[in-house]
Amino acid sequence: MKEFAEVYEEVSQGKSVRVYEMADFCQIAPQSLYQILNGKRKPTSGDLVLRIAEYLQLRPKEREKLVNSYFMTIIGKDVYIRRKSVTNFFDSYKEGIGDLRFFRTSTIEELPNLMTISNTLDLAQLVYNMFFETKKEVLCMYLPSTFPILANLVRSYEKEGGQLHIEHIFGINRQKQDTELENSTLRTLQNLIPIYMGTTDFKSYYFYEDMDSFMYPFPYYILSHAGLIQIASDFKNAILIKDEKIQSLYYAHFNAQRKYSTPFNVELTKSNQIMKNSLYYWQNNQESVVSYRYYPFLYPLLDEELLKETTMGMDPDFLAESIEYMDCVRAKLEAYPSKLLFTFEGIQKFMKFGYLGDIDSMTENTFNLRDRKEIIGRLIDKYDEYGYVMLKGMFGGIDPLIQLMVTPSRGYVQIFNEHKQSVFLGIRNEKVLFLFKDYLENIPENLVYTPQEAKQLLKRLLE
């Protein structure tokens, strides 16, 4: 990605540009504009960049390129790429979920003690057949997360009613895998999300090192009591070995690698456990919170009477738990600076239908109009104290239904599977948490209402 002045030069080629005329159109001093266009100064605001794009009558892709170059110039290339990788992750995380289905074709016992494989599909079929012979045993995988169709294999087995227990060790080589389009850690998460979404007991571990140094040219392997599958770096060539002594050596290697690897710390979390887990965590940790459309958004604005109304007819224990959670969130926000992101569209929906975010997933009851106005009034009063930030719209390619809650050491993300069913992932991977937290804390200024603008819009809803 190039800096602003370089991109400006590209998109303005062939256009008749008069700096004084452009300066007048953009409402900036000609000398200042000249310095910005020649890379001697940074653009003063995103609005200025948009006015320059309008003056040049740029096509949408050219305009996007110019705006992106502005953000990169302001925050620096490394930071821009890091945050862009989060945008790309949320825009493409579903790509790891495919429709390819496998079926069992043979047993490992029927195969010879030594057999070679020379193409990826045959290798995948061999791995799938091995699934059926692991039973309650742990299947050991020393394999990159980029192994083709791994998620399809696991999901196919789950559709057969099988229950797998997998321990997966993989390497992350940041120098080789980090690019301007994606971050290696987020790419790994994207590859594994379909497995986390399923019913497999899946434990993953990683280390920051190249995996290719072990047993070249077959550095990877999948291991169970049924046999050992050695896999080449091209994921095409492989060897099936059924020899207990050799398998024992590989078990020893796997156990040693697991000892020195780090748990990836992502797991499927049931939606009805989110409140309990969050409550326990918030009561026992002193950390600020950054959230996007998550539980903390609404709860501190409620009181016992409002909770009783919206949980009417439900388990009394749920009401007691909700009250405890409400008090905990409120105390947390009053004690630690936090940032609670929400959209104006979300507030409009709340005023129209009487629910917002998680409330509709917990109860079928909704707030009446009087209560809605009361809650929005409290939102205005507590806007600055609790760290509310109202967005002008969706941002960064994030699905409008996605929810995030992030602290430095724990977080939750609600995403959706191929059937559009919501799935909650609990995250304790510090690298992933840092990327998400950094992203949410640094939303571009042109996508955020100032506190004064936000309060004014909210007041209009009450009229």
Automatic annotation (TrEMBL):
InterPro entries in the cross-refs: Cro/C1-type_HTH, Lambda_DNA-bd_dom_sf
Coiled-coil intervals, chain numbering: none
Protein name per Swiss-Prot or TrEMBL: HTH cro/C1-type domain-containing protein
Origin organism lineage: Bacteria, Bacillati, Bacillota, Erysipelotrichia, Erysipelotrichales
Domain (HTH cro/C1-type): residue spans on this chain: 21-63
Top-level taxonomic group: Bacteria
GO molecular function: DNA binding
Membrane-spanning segments: none
